[in-house]
Design goal:
The chain is an alpha/beta fold. It has twelve helices and ten strands. The strands form two sheets. The protein has a six-stranded mixed beta sheet with strand order 6-7-8-3-9-10, sandwiched between helices. The chain binds adenosine-5'-diphosphate and magnesium ion. Adenosine-5'-diphosphate binds next to strand 1, strand 2 and helix 1.
Length: 350
């Protein structure tokens, strides 16, 4: 059986006045049935554009999928017609966005939108859908589901709207849920409830989940695997426990350094310095090189391999590549501690 979702060498670019922005630039990963893959990384690394690409919702006309394959149950979604793709969305694959207010229609009641989502795909009749709508709202933790059905989006709090979005996303029992920062705007208690709900439904329905988050605590609790994204690429990919205990890529080490180091091997440098460059100006070799405390000359000249021989998991870093003759011994002290100052002309262009 093919994996539920297999993404191969996905590239999503934007035309911009400053040239081509390579927002997603050769990304590969897979999500298995019933499992969760987390994509983590700072803001601007291409996580949301990756998610939008899967459903072909990249903002047009500036954005376009330049290449790659998006295999869902073995068939390439990029080969589907617009109509076929529309059926996949919301039926087989559902998505929870970062901004709930923008994805609910302000002119229709919650009940209408929820019922519409279910009957549109023909899985449920009107009567079934109305009953299910009430049940789903109760499950996502709304106190008075009957009343919520009659309300308009603006009458609900942000937390309630996000729960409604989750109810809509789950209403057709999708095989894959894409959740992009699903709980970022919510307080901690609601956050925990929503994550628990997603987990329960995942178990009941054997749903695969692609979770995008910058909250590493959530990753530890929910995900079997992690992909660390930087500057449009995956720089480290593997089992959650392995990456938490021993992040290898200097960027991953920086991200995970903010967590308590219990049980982690090796010494980490302090938090990440510098900022993600704009996607029209990725550094030419290693994209993390200007910010990397372990860098040496080769890093600015030779693009690192994704899966070098000295690592049992993908790590896009010369430190793990025995073919890079001048690499320092691993565990050696960092070469330079100060990040390269951002190029002021690039900064002005942002
Ligand atoms: N409509 C657009 N036009 C041009 N560039 C865009 C557009 N949308 C996103 N981008 C660029 O794509 C990059 C990745 O964005 P995004 O996927 O939203 O990052 P993340 O979700 O990791 O914070 C950003 O640097 C942004 O500048
Ligand atoms: Mg995002």
């Amino acid at each position: 059986m093919p994996p539920l979702l297999q993404v191969e060498n996905l590239r999503t670019y934007f035309h911009t006045p400053r040239g081509i922005a390579k927002a997603v630039d050769g990304v590969s990963f897979q999500v298995e049935q019933g499992k969760t893959l987390a994509i983590v990384g700072e803001s601007g690394c291409g996580k949301s554009i990756t998610a939008l690409s899967l459903l072909q919702l990249v903002p047009e006309p500036a954005g376009y999928i330049e290449g790659g394959r998006i295999l869902f149950e073995g068939r390439d979604l990029l080969d589907l017609t617009w109509d076929q793709m529309r059926r996949v969305r919301g039926d087989d694959i559902a998505m929870i966005f970062q901004e709930p207010m923008t994805s609910l229609n302000p002119t229709f009641t919650i009940g209408y939108q929820l019922v519409e989502a279910m009957t549109m795909h023909g899985k449920f009749t009107g009567a079934q859908a109305r009953q299910r709508a009430k049940d789903l709202l109760a499950r996502v933790g709304l106190q008075d589901p009957a009343q919520a059905l009659r309300q308009y989006p603006h009458e609900l709090s942000g937390g309630m709207r996000q729960r409604v979005m989750i109810a809509i996303a789950l209403s057709n029992e999708p095989k894959l849920l894409i959740a992009d920062e699903p709980t970022t705007a919510l307080d901690v208690t609601v956050q925990a409830q929503i994550l628990a709900l997603i987990r329960d439904l995942q178990r009941e329905q054997n749903m695969g989940v692609l979770l995008i988050t910058h909250d590493l605590g959530i990753v530890a609790e929910t995900s079997e695997e992690v992909a660390v994204m930087y500057a449009g690429q995956i720089v480290e990919y593997g089992p959650t426990s392995a990456i938490f205990h021993e992040p290898r890529h200097p960027y991953a080490r920086g991200l995970f350094a903010s967590l308590p180091a219990r049980g982690r091997r090796g010494q980490d440098l302090a938090t990440l310095e510098g900022i993600v460059p704009p996607p029209t100006a990725w550094p030419p070799a290693c994209r993390f090189e200007p910010r990397c405390a372990y860098r040496w000359d080769t890093c600015a000249q030779v693009p690192p391999k994704y899966h070098p021989a000295d690592s049992d998991r993908p790590v896009r870093c010369h430190l793990y590549d025995p073919e890079i003759a001048d690499r320092p011994a691993r565990g050696a002290a960092p070469i330079a501690k100060e990040p390269v100052a951002p190029d002021p002309t690039v900064e002005a262009a942002r």
